[in-house]
Amino acid sequence: MRKMSYDITVFNDKVQNTIYQLQSLGETILNLMVNLFKGYKAAADKEFVSYIRLKKYEYNERGAIDTDKLLTNAENQYMEMI
């Protein structure tokens, strides 16, 4: 996250590119959600990090969020904040 200047859009693009590259090789990604949450929690904005904590709670309690939804929600929140 630091390498991307805490830019969620750049972070998401990097994540999506990595996912596509791995899928094209027939690979699966273990612990993707765990690592996404870790990456987002490294953001500099405390309000954004609080939002991500709520999404993690939602994921842990109800499993109501998947990778695509998390990427989209994080992007939307980030765009709203800037």
Describe this structure in words.
The structure is a single chain. The chain is an all-alpha fold and about 80 residues long. The protein has one domain. It is built from 4 helices and no strands. The chain has helices spanning about 10-25, 30-40, 45-60, 65-80. Helix 2 runs parallel beside helix 4 (about 65-80) and helix 3 (about 45-60) packs antiparallel against helix 4 (about 65-80). It is globular. The mean pLDDT is about 95.
Topology, element by element:
Layout: H1 8-24, H2 32-41, H3 46-62, H4 67-81
* Succession of helices and strands: HHHH
Q: What is the first-to-last residue Cα distance?
A: 17 Å
- Cα gyration radius (Å): 13 Å
Strand content: under 5%
* Low-confidence runs: none
For the secondary structure, the number of strands is 0
Backbone structural class = mainly alpha
For the structure shown, list the relevant keywords.
mainly alpha; 0% strand; globular; 72% helix; 4 helices; 82 residues
Brief summary of the model shown:
The chain is an all-alpha fold. It has four helices and no strands. The model has no long low-confidence stretch (mean pLDDT 93).
